[in-house]
Amino acid sequence: MTLQPKGTGQLASSDGARHSRIHGVGGYRPERVITNEEVCTWIDSSDEWIRQRSGVVTRRWAAEHESVVDMAEAAARPALEMAGISAAQLSAIVVATVTHPFQTPAAAPLLATRLGADGVPAFDVSAACAGYCYGISLASDMVRGGSAEYVLVIGVEKLSSITDKHDRGTSFILADGAGAAVVGPSDTPGIGPTVWGSDGTNWETISQRVGWDEILRRWDQEETTGQPQDWSDLEVAGAREASTLKMAGQTVFRWAVWSMAPVCQQALDKAGITAADLDAFIPHQANMRIIDAMLKQLKLPDDIPVARDIAETGNTSAASIPLATERMLREGEVPRGGLALQVGFGAGLVFAAQVVVLP
Ligand SMILES: CC(C)(COP(=O)(O)OP(=O)(O)OC[C@H]1O[C@@H](n2cnc3c(N)ncnc32)[C@H](O)[C@@H]1OP(=O)(O)O)[C@@H](O)C(=O)NCCC(=O)NCCS
């Protein structure tokens, strides 16, 4: 006998908004400025080499006590203000980060409580430098699918906590900060289709492996009690070096330069616009040379403003696109309501691009 379902099998479905858009953005840059001169006290390099090879002039590093959640909160408040909504009106929080020092729980539920948005669904996304664009895509689909009305998307990193200061390949690029966006309903399309994907064949080109065996060995040698509690404890016994970020710089460079321009073009095509329609190009602030190479490939008209926040902010991974967006709007470099192409790419390797209407 074949089993039959009990009912008709018909369920009610949720109805979302017809369209979504970004209602507000906000940013937080830690106070401490790290100059190239300071970096050169850790590595054998020069201000000239760092500027030429990466475009970074200064970067911000968080204070020792400043956490990913602290920075996320500081970026979220101005984003909510620009959006004109209160935290209580949020229906979900998505935090893109790879530097929250707990494997679990996620940073997002704590952020929800801090903001006064207790009880909302809240989770983290691990998509490295593409995390913000992944978050915008998820939030847009949540708003349109009816599972949320207003979603707070945060890109936040404390990369200094996983950086080996003495590594010539990473220490001059990586930095800390947070950027936020509030995504909500819209009468007209405000977030174009996302072009996203991954390349697991290059899985190891940017990676942070937690060397727990080495950490516990060193921990045991110290006059410590108990077990290390989270990754912040890796400072103890100098064990942090066992768990810092490693990057195959040239491989990542080539991948980004050759693969990301076609992804950007697809995002333009899917949004039904051409490069000439753009008011801004806001790529992940990985490296100024990558940005320049992508511009050449994309054949972007010369008069379109391009985010170059990396010069003063460094590479803040998931935070870099919302931070650059916030700066361009604040400094009047791009019009509110204008069209921006944003593209994130990084460890995974993963990438995501979409055209958005600026808040
Ligand atoms: C990191 C990066 C700047 C290194 O540049 P590179 O040209 O690949 O550097 P290499 O490791 O091949 O070394 C080239 C030369 O520079 C030297 N060098 C490397 N790091 C240096 C540093 N920090 N300062 C001075 N010289 C350095 C090397 O010793 C080498 O010298 P040699 O030719 O005399 O042997 C580059 O690979 C890069 O930008 N990659 C992408 C990184 C990135 O954006 N990541 C984020 C993606 S999300």
TrEMBL record:
It is found in: Cytoplasm. Its EC number is 2.3.1.180. This is Beta-ketoacyl-[acyl-carrier-protein] synthase III. Signal peptide: none annotated. Belongs to the thiolase-like superfamily. FabH family. Residues 1-13 have a biased composition (Polar residues). Its main location: cytoplasm. Keywords: Acyltransferase, Cytoplasm, Fatty acid biosynthesis, Fatty acid metabolism, Lipid biosynthesis, Lipid metabolism, Multifunctional enzyme, Transferase. Residues 268-356 form the Beta-ketoacyl-[acyl-carrier-protein] synthase III C-terminal domain. GO terms for molecular function: 3-oxoacyl-[acyl-carrier-protein] synthase activity; beta-ketoacyl-acyl-carrier-protein synthase III activity. The gene is fabH. One of its GO terms (cellular component) is cytoplasm. It comes from the Bacteria. Residues 123-200 form the Beta-ketoacyl-[acyl-carrier-protein] synthase III N-terminal domain. Pathway: Lipid metabolism; fatty acid biosynthesis. InterPro entries: ACP_syn_III_C, ACP_syn_III_N, FabH, Thiolase-like. Catalyzes the condensation reaction of fatty acid synthesis by the addition to an acyl acceptor of two carbons from malonyl-ACP. Catalyzes the first condensation reaction which initiates fatty acid synthesis and may therefore play a role in governing the total rate of fatty acid production. Possesses both acetoacetyl-ACP synthase and acetyl transacylase activities. Its substrate specificity determines the biosynthesis of branched-chain and/or straight-chain of fatty acids. Residues 1-24 are annotated as: Disordered. The last Arg residue of the ACP-binding site is essential for the weak association between ACP/AcpP and FabH. HAMAP family: FabH.
